[in-house]
Every structure is written in C-alpha cells, then in structure tokens.
Fold this protein.
Amino acid sequence: MFAPNTPIDRSRVLSALLWGAVGFSAFLTLVQGYALVVEPLVSITQGVFVATCVGAVTAVGAYALEHRLLAWMAGRVSDDPQSHDGDSKSKS
C-alpha cells in the first residue's frame, strides 16, 4: 500500500481514525437500541468486539477510499461547470 520512503499523511490518518470511531459508536448505538426495543442481540463483550472490528474496517476503508472519492468529486465538478445553462433554477 505504501511505497518505500513515502511519508504518511497525518491528516488522512486522523480522518480515517475519526471515521473508525464513528463506525464503532454507530454499531454500539444500534446494538443498544435493538436491545432496548426487542432483546439483547449480543453480550457487551461480543458487542465491543464486533464494534471494534466495524471501526477498524471503517477506518481502513476511509483511508483507502477518501482521496479517491475527493478526486472523483473534483472531476465531476470540473467536467460540467454550466449544468443549468447559466440560470440558477433547479432542473430536477
């Protein structure tokens, strides 16, 4: 994944870790909500383990895909600068 002697971009790592924390928290929130409404789906230990796995996968996915998504979105914006023929009205 990394070329030799390539510095790691700390802002990308921090962003990926924060997305991992969001995934971790979201999974635990869903498990707790399900337990409150229906019945406990997993034990606390199992829930934390699975949430850690979800957070890790989210962090790796965010690190791998974030720069690609940004480049794709920038390309979409530059490809079609006048999508509405100059007027400000929505065409949806």
